[in-house]
Amino acid sequence: MKQTDFHEALRKILEHDTRYAPEAYVFVREALEFTIKSLKKPEKGPARHVSGAELLDGIRQFALQEYGPLTLRVLNHWGVRRSEDFGEIVFALVESGVLGKTDEDRREDFAGGYDFETVFAAPFRPAKPREASASRRTGRATKKE
Question: Residue 125: which residues within 8 A CB-CB, separation 6 or more?
Answer without folding.
Answer: none
